Each structure stands twice: as C-alpha cells, then as structure tokens.
Amino acid sequence: MKLRGLVLINALVVALALAIVNYYFQNSWYHTAVTFVIALVICYVVFYYLIERFVYSKIKLIYKLIHNLKLGQELKDALGEYVTDDPINDVETEVKEWARVKKIEIDELKKQEQFRKEFLGNISHELKTPLFAVQGYIEALQDEGLEDNEMNRSFLSKASKNIDRLSLLIKDIDAISKLESGEIQINYKKFDLSALIKEVLEQMEFKANKHNIHLIFKEKYNFPTWVYADRDKIHQVLINLVSNSIKYGKAGGTTSLKIFELHDQILVEVTDDGIGIEEKHLPRVFERFFRTDKSRSRQIGGSGLGLAIVKHILEAHQQTITVRSTEGLGSTFAFTISKAK
C-alpha cells in the first residue's frame, strides 16, 4: 500500500508539471486535462514498474535475507515463508534491531578481549614467579656446589615450596577450566552440612593456629543440617573460603561460620575480622587472579583462583555467593545450598 501511494504521489507531481507546461503553450483547459490524465497514467505505470523492478524487489530480497538470518533456517522452515506488506518499514526496524544487538555483542567481545589480555598477563606472572625462583635456587646450588649442607637444605626447601605453589596453580587452573567447560559432573546426594563444616574446621585448625586465628562454629549448630548437593564440591568451597579468611585475617582474630535456614535453602556465612576489602573491589573479588593487594598476596601465597573456583562450583549447583565487607573490619562471604527434601 505504501508503495502505491509513493508511486501515485510522484506520478501526480510529474503529471501536474506536464499539464502546467501544456497549458502555458496551448492555453487550453481541455488539452491540459487530457495531458494531465495521460501523463498521470503513464507515469504511474512507469514509476511503479521501475520501483518494483529495480528498487522494491531488491529491498524484499534484503529483508528476506535479514529475516532468514535472524530466524535461522530451521525455524524459518517450521514457520513457513514470512510475508510482509511493508518490507521497507520492516527492513528499517530489523536493521535497527540488528545494529542494537550487534553493538551489544561488540561491547561484550571488547570486554572479553580485555579480560583475555588480563588473564594471560596474570597467568604469565603467576607462572613465572615460582619458575624463576626455582631456577634461581638451582643455579645457586650449581654455582656453590654441595659443600655447605645447611645452605643446600635451605635452597632446596625454598625451591620445593615454589614447586608446590606451581603445582597448586596448575591444579587450580585445570579445575576451573573443567568447571567452565562442564566436564566436572555434580554428584548430588543428601548429607549433613554441620558435620561437613566441623570436618573442614578440623582440617584447617593447624593453619589457623599458625596464623593465631580462632575458628568458631557455635554449639547451637550441633544438630544435623541436611542439604542436597555434591559433598566433595561443597567441601572444596568451605576449604577455600576458610583458607581465604585465614590468609587475610589479623593475628589474634577470628573466623566464624554460621548457618541460617531459609525457605528451601540453607545460607552459610564465613565471617572474618581481618583487613577487609575496599568497596570498589567488591564486584571483582570472584574474578580469576584478582587480588586487592598484589604485594601482600605474593607474601601470602595461593593460586589466586580460590574464589573463582568457589563461584563456579556454586553456579554449577545453581546457587549464589555474595560478599559484604568493610575495609579494616573484615569480610563475610555467604552462599546458599538446597535443603534436602
């Protein structure tokens, strides 16, 4: 309909111009009217043919291509051929929508590219640090010989620690890669969360004592708390969170674990009274290799992937983890687990 209207307007303009010219030369209303009618019919037919043949048909092809690409061939076949009365307007709408979607995709690709660069830079740094340290100790042993047993033992001990750090890093990279690709299956089963927390605290007791940090899990949680999840994966989540709280806790401080019963979930909180996290860093704490204090993190050790692994494990369980923190006062990491029915 819009095509015919557009053609008619153009034909009227040309026919009117020809009629005015005819009247100017012949000064006859009869001939002017005849000229106007004939010119209108001829112009309408010619314009309609030209626009339909050379312009509109091309627009229809473009729209059909856009429409098919947007729907996908399989969906298009299922819906049948899509017919539109106004392909020009539809093309405009589709192109605007296509441009909007592509802009979002391009922005996302830019973010991913930046993330990839940061990740490669971080992993290169994390791998080089222990490797260069081991290389330096080995070269020192080769240069000095094996005469000073005390120095040899010291160098070998330091090299061993850096190899352990390298092994931990590779293990964590492998774990997070499998979690992201979905290679690691979640083996759901019913288990007592309270018992698991006590088991984790017993495992972490030596490390906590070494840092002079007191682990707290109050007696009111002595009753069973039944949840439905992968026990081994939740064990790793708790280990990583408690270990993280010990690393960044203060000497003489505490790390406490609490359980809260929600409607169909159990909320677990791991709270420390350590150095805390600046508010501007909170959105990034679960990123791979992200550390708020690079220099202190190198002294503390670890792969820098602990919280990223925690986030991936909980997302695989279709659960969430959050963090709230005040710099200088401490941090609380809270995550949910499904209740056992």
From TrEMBL:
Report TM segments.
Answer: 7-25, 31-51
Q: What is its EC number?
A: 2.7.13.3
Record-annotated Histidine kinase domain positions: 122-341
Keyword list, A-Z: Kinase, Membrane, Phosphoprotein, Transferase, Transmembrane, Transmembrane helix, Two-component regulatory system
Q: Signal peptide position in this chain?
A: none
Q: What class of enzyme is it?
A: transferase
Taxonomically, the superkingdom here is Bacteria
What chemistry does it catalyse, as a reaction equation? ATP + protein L-histidine = ADP + protein N-phospho-L-histidine
GO CC entries: plasma membrane
State the InterPro entries in the record: BphY/WalK/GraS-like (IPR050351), HATPase_C_sf (IPR036890), HATPase_dom (IPR003594), His_kinase_dom (IPR005467), HisK_dim/P_dom (IPR003661), HisK_dim/P_sf (IPR036097), Sig_transdc_His_kin-like_C (IPR004358)
Enumerate the GO terms in the molecular function aspect: phosphoprotein phosphatase activity; phosphorelay sensor kinase activity
* Gene Ontology biological-process entries: cellular response to phosphate starvation
Name of the protein described by the UniProt record: histidine kinase
